[in-house]
Amino acid sequence: MLKAIPAAAALAxxxxxxxxxxxxxxxTNSVRVSYADLNLxxxxxxxxxxxxxxxxxxxxxxxxDSRQLPIQTATNACRNDAVASAQPAFEAAxxxxxxxxxxxxxxxxxxxxxx
Length: 115
Fold this sequence. Notes:
Distance between the termini: 49 Å
């Protein structure tokens, strides 16, 4: 029982870190994905940012009823394009961490947009 309390606290802390990292930049057309809490010099940090970008693409490219095949195809294409459009920003963020660039003012974010 006592071991479950720290595990639940760790899970709550992780959820609290993830929720503020996603903020809508413009209603449903783009989502700001923060990586201020990640170490992008590590593989784990890079993987976390990639997962956040994929999640943001799911949010940005959410259509009414994606159970119909044409809508599902369009949804998948939108998500793939959104992730691809964020790739240059992802690579720039990783490169800045590798070269020790400091980002001031909390601007450590990637914007994922619907094409």
